[in-house]
Write a structure and sequence with these properties.
Length: 306
């Protein structure tokens, strides 16, 4: 859209470099600058009010009550459940443990299993095809897949707390918590099936790991994970059912706090001025006293000379 002179409405060309309009001679940058300055101030005030309102709602939605503080904490704690072992396949050859770094199970850790799978995924699919996609390898890999999905749903539930701050009673976190628990349960079922299928397979290759007379199944870590996820679910349900303040209530509280702060600052400024005036008064009185003492001493000296 072409620019126009704010006074006469003349359309400005690209070669009009002068500050004054050719038709009316008004200075375009300085035309009605006071009114434009007031408009800019009003616009800035509205934007800042909107920003403070959004920030206030975000703070309230995330940590505005004790229950919401508990929720944000419980969103992190279930991570512990993904470090401990969910399942394992042990054999006379290699062993595979479904915990992150292998400190709870005697065998290859989940990190090494991921590294092996993504390094040569074709080998794993070949092994799964060989057992007809219904053996210990398939069930274990499905268990790991649902374990990853469980973690993903838990992470999404956490970010929903941040993204739904404008809707403090949103139930999206509850939905993703339920999905996360469902994935954990399915993952546990897969590890149980893998443990039951392993003895019948006798000897097989789990990717690049040889398994001989394998046994295995579910482990205690998955119960810890499900318990922590259920605790997070309960907290999210309580938050969704608890009364929540509206935008208007939060704005009234913010303005009340702002007014109280300004009043406190005003009273402090008055007290400061009073203290300053009192100090000046005392200094003046002290100066007058010193002058009087000096005059009296001078008068006494004159009397002695006489």
């Amino acid at each position: 859209m072409a620019s126009k002179c704010p006074n006469c409405g003349r359309t400005l060309k690209w070669y009009d470099f002068k500050a004054e309009c050719k038709d009316c001679g008004v200075s375009i940058p300085n035309f009605n600058w006071e009114a434009r300055l007031e408009e800019d101030a009003e616009l800035s005030e509205k934007k800042f009010a909107k920003f403070y309102r959004t920030l206030n709602m975000f703070a309230y939605s995330v940590w505005g009550t004790k229950l919401r503080i508990a929720r944000i904490i419980m969103s992190f704690i279930p991570i512990i459940g993904f470090i401990v072992p969910w399942g394992a396949l042990k054999s006379e050859g290699e062993s595979v443990g479904i915990d992150v770094i292998g400190i709870f199970t005697d065998g290859q850790s989940l990190i090494k299993l991921f590294s092996s799978f993504f390094g040569n995924s074709g080998l794993y699919f070949t092994n799964m095809a060989y057992e007809g996609y219904s053996g210990p390898i398939t069930y274990t890999m499905l268990g790991v897949l649902f374990m990853v999905l469980c973690l993903l749903m838990a992470v999404i539930a956490f970010f929903m707390i941040l993204f739904t701050n404008k809707h403090p009673k949103s139930k999206l976190m509850v939905i993703f918590d339920c999905l996360s628990i469902a994935c954990a349960v399915v993952s546990g079922v897969m590890f149980v099936l893998a443990g039951k299928a392993a003895p019948a397979a006798n000897a097989f290759n789990f990717g690049e790991y040889p398994m001989i007379n394998a046994t295995g199944g579910i482990m205690w870590g998955i119960f810890v994970a499900i318990a922590l996820l259920c605790a997070a679910l309960v907290i999210n349900i309580l938050v969704a059912k608890a009364p929540a303040k509206t935008h208007e209530q939060l704005e009234e509280e913010r303005l009340a706090k702002k007014a109280a702060k300004e009043e406190k600052e005003r009273l402090a400024a008055i007290e400061k001025e009073k203290a300053k005036a009192e100090a000046e008064k005392k200094a003046k009185e002290e100066q007058e006293r010193l002058v009087e003492e000096a005059r009296a001493k001078l008068a006494a000296d004159k009397n002695k000379k006489k």
